[in-house]
């Protein structure tokens, strides 16, 4: 897969309602041209963020303030569309209505890319509004990959699928989660949105190695990172997106940047949402880690993914 | 009791599919998802129905749980999850004690819906003045898309205003009224109206000609006062931004009774 379909946008945050006014009023809003210079030149970052990710379903509406805000943000920043209801793993038929709503929104937003989750969100016509895990076996790989291909055919572009946090596994699983993720991405020929916090949460909940997970994902497939906070519920970790990113996840992020190189990074925060500055600060911490590693690896062969890309360009 | 035995059987069925370990049994792992399902939708419902939740207090959570069993979400967006709550409340036993609850929920649902309804530019007085007098009787107008009009049996508008301004909500008075809910830009407004204005607005919403709308407004009155009333009503609609010019394509029916 050629990662150029998923350009490096820098460091962004999820666009959430409490920040609408701030984002629109902020002077850090920059034109696309200036934005590109900023990414390329990497000239001392301001307090701002480089890009935004939206929850697609929140904007599948006919009018009103959400779309007005969306258009205004889009005028100033690149946007990626991130869905939560594609239900790519379900055994229900893919919803034509949903896919056409997705295509319609994409036509309006012209997103940098479109992503959703490697999960199922409902069955029998019901929507659980949750990201439920899949069994990890060959049958599931074939099932999900075929459906991703169909989605990519309908919306005429490659999508990225995200690993979810999970709290249960199935007896019929025959492979690890990372083997499953890599196999689906290869067979569907799609990209991977690697959520570092989800790797950490699931590693704890199921007792596997987060490092081994990261080290096993094919670099050429990784199009985006997610970083988020979780909460400790004693027997398990909950992917609550209501807290700062923990130090162990930052450590994993460093490992991921070393392995995967220049990958657009996004901070997610969905509950007990703090002031925008707190999210921008997290985005800038990610930026500093990235820059530090880039400086370290510059002049040397660097990471595998960037080296591969340099080879292609040359 | 059989419920206990049923639970044992269910747990055994879950254990056959879901892996458990010494840290958490398979049923405990599934219970995390079950708990999150209810908690997440409870949050959504509280956001969509803040006044209904305030009036119900402690019992809101349990009623939402019953609602989710009766009307499980089926659409991709949580926007639709609470869609049938007013209808559910209408036949719920709680309405024997709080008969106004379904009307209140209907008002709150209408507000949620107009918030994201299509944008249609309302008519203003200048645009209306530009239309020649001869064209007036045959003029077709419509209501803006972000508008809902419906009948209620209780004066719940006052109750909602109480909750919105942090006052202790009083039990509303009984009284047949119509409620008009609409949006201008990003703001949602609501007010009560009577049968005559509601009927005129409904006609307007169906794209009726101006003379028929006037007829409806005048009602049985055929005196000089009726002209004054029609003009005052029309001016109010313009000020409030509830009417629009009928475009070249047939207008979508935006008024629900
Ligand atoms: Fe994520």
Q: Describe it for me?
A:
The complex is a heterodimer of chains A (314) and B (257). Chain A is of the alpha/beta class. Chain A is 43% helix and 12% strand. In chain A, the strands form 2 sheets. Chain A has an 8-stranded parallel β-barrel with strand order 1-2-3-4-5-6-7-10, surrounded by 4 helices. In chain A, strands 8-9 form a two-stranded antiparallel ribbon. Chain B is α+β, with helices and mostly antiparallel strands. Chain B folds into 2 domains: 1-44, no CATH class; 49-253, Outer Surface Protein A, domain 3. Chain B is built from 12 helices and 5 strands. Chain B has helices at 2-17, 26-48, 50-56, 59-70, 85-90, 94-97, 101-115, 125-129, 156-164, 195-205, 210-218, 224-240, and strands at residues 141-143, 147-154, 174-184, 187-193, 243-245. Classes of the chains: A alpha/beta (314), B alpha+beta (257). At the A-B interface, α3 of A face α2 of B. The complex binds fe (ii) ion (FE2).
Number of domains of chain A: 1
CATH class of chain A: Alpha Beta
Fraction of residues in helix of chain B: 40-55%
**H and E string of chain A:** EHHEHEHEHEHEHHEEEHEHH
Mean pLDDT across the residues of chain A is 91
What fraction, in percent, of the residue positions of chain A are helical?
40-55%
CATH architecture of chain A: Alpha-Beta Barrel
